Amino acid sequence: MKMVIFGLTVSSSWGNGHATLWRGLCRALARMGHRVVFFEKDVPYYAFHRDLRELPGTDLVLYPEWTDILPRAKREVADADVAMVTSYCPDGIAASDLVLEGETSIFYDLDTPITLEKLEAGQEVPYLPTAGLGGFDLVLSYTGGSALTALRERLGARRVAPLYGSVDPEAHRPGEPNPDYQADLSYLGTYAADRQEALDRLFLEPARRLPGKRFVIAGAQYPAEFPWGPNVWFVRHLPPADHPAFYGSSPLTLNVTRAAMARMGWCPSGRLFEAAACGTACLSDTWAGLNDFFEPGREVLIAETTEEAIAALTLPKEEIARIGRAARERALAEHTAEHRARQLLDMLGSRGVERNTAA
Length: 359
Fold this sequence. Notes:
- By secondary structure, this protein is α/β, with parallel strands linked by helices.
- The protein has helices at residues 18-31, 44-48, 66-78, 92-99, 112-120, 146-155, 196-209, 243-248, 259-264, 270-277, 306-313, 317-334, 337-348; strands spanning 2-7, 35-41, 58-63, 82-86, 105-109, 138-141, 160-162, 185-188, 215-219, 232-236, 252-255, 281-284, 301-302.
- It has 13 helices and 13 strands.
- The strands form two sheets. Strands 3-2-1-4-5-6-7 form a seven-stranded parallel β-sheet.
- Strand 4 (82-86), helix 4 and strand 5 (105-109) form a beta-alpha-beta unit.
């Protein structure tokens, strides 16, 4: 099968969660004998932080402007079995018009709660076709639960299915600790204003109350006025190759879900799967559906208050390590990129995608 994708980025993991997910899925599809052509607009902020230039089994097409690549894009889509456009694709509307002419058309919203929140607020969503999603043969959502109903009712999607986050065990696995990342509690994530309240409650306030412990944050786009503390260290953007060492340098890592995603539920952060694959126990905020991915108390620790976060930090090391091992077993059994790739192929295979014949 040949799949053509018009997406945000696969070449740079800086400040986004799309690239790491696509790298894992593309590798998994390639191992199964499929070919992917990924079109990515060559924007300066990703070019400056580019940490991947080639991917086996995937043709990465970087282009300056849509008009420059349109002839090739038309040829690739005409020759493809499946064509897909994703949320936050810089040329999402134009790409959708092209994808809808293909053999099988897919829209994959990796940011469904944000998409729906913007629509409810009356804001423009530049990657959505003006006619909605009713023309696509299949609409995939990174978020399950009520998001699937909303995509049908709000945007006219005819066939909707979740395709959740995943992890590539080749990229995320137990790693040797790095003294620069050593911490009692770590946090890996791009700065987002709607995560700040939870980050303060579950990370920064515990750091204030436990001055003898070390806390480390890694990520991009943190503002100058961020409330750092004397026992909180910062690692600027960390490429995926360094994730295993980062996770392996602390017994416990924090997961904080963006507010819109937490409200909707069934939207597991990729960090949950990555930390689990590295064998590091995760302390997470809670949201509906979390226990469908990891079992609270056995495979993940839950905290809503500062006191609960501190309690997790003071658990016996053996108990925290046991949770990390159990999480790794669950991730490898159910949440790898290969599992998601097979789910995608299953949707496109025996059960099929009915070709849209609407005029």
